[in-house]
Specification:
180 residues; alpha/beta; two-stranded parallel ribbon; 47% helix
């Protein structure tokens, strides 16, 4: 059975301000789901695990998918709005970006686990983009990933809204003002 939950996805290429918006919403005492990739990379690097994108991309994507699914399941059917730094469809975009087909299981999950109808996108913003030991993509690579993400959400029938550039509080307010 398909069920659309009030989980508002905030997504886009890496380094375009998603996490700052999610952190602002958290400061406003909103229920949020953080980005899992950064935490997984940080923790798994410490123990020299294979659950790292440069060691075993499929295992890494599987771990992220399991965590996203866990969050999705944790949100009640009649919950108030909650906000997520990425969603399950992002996993399809990342698989495609890396030249892989998404698994049948992931495709089934994405078609069954529906989010709020409008997805908020952080557009490419070179002025704030920074890569580091965890975010290794260049700005150009992040722009390419961004395109894959947009394409997947559009293919799935979501409405896409670009979040205007601005301070995190302004961007969070924009999202809050545009959900019903």
């Amino acid at each position: 059975m398909k069920l659309r939950k009030n989980i508002v996805i905030i997504t886009g290429g890496s380094g375009f301000g998603k996490t700052e918006i999610i952190e602002e919403l958290k400061r406003q005492r909103r229920y949020i789901c953080p980005e899992f990739a950064r935490d997984i990379i940080f923790s798994q690097s410490k123990i020299n695990s294979d659950i790292l994108p440069w060691k075993n991309m499929k295992l890494f994507q599987k771990e992220i998918t399991e965590r996203r699914l866990g969050f999705y399941r944790s949100v009640g059917e009649k919950s108030d709005f909650v906000f997520s730094d990425r969603g399950l469809p992002d996993q399809i975009a990342f698989a495609r970006y890396h030249g892989n087909s998404p698994s049948l299981k992931l495709t089934e999950l994405v078609n069954k686990c529906l989010y709020y109808k409008t997805v908020f996108i952080t557009p490419p913003w070179k002025d704030i983009y920074v890569n580091d030991s965890i975010r290794k993509e260049t700005f150009e690579e992040s722009c390419c990933i961004h395109k894959y993400i947009l394409d997947v959400y559009l293919e799935l029938g979501y409405s896409i809204v670009d979040i205007p550039f601005g301070k995190s509080a302004e961007r969070a307010k924009y999202i809050l003002d545009n959900i019903q």
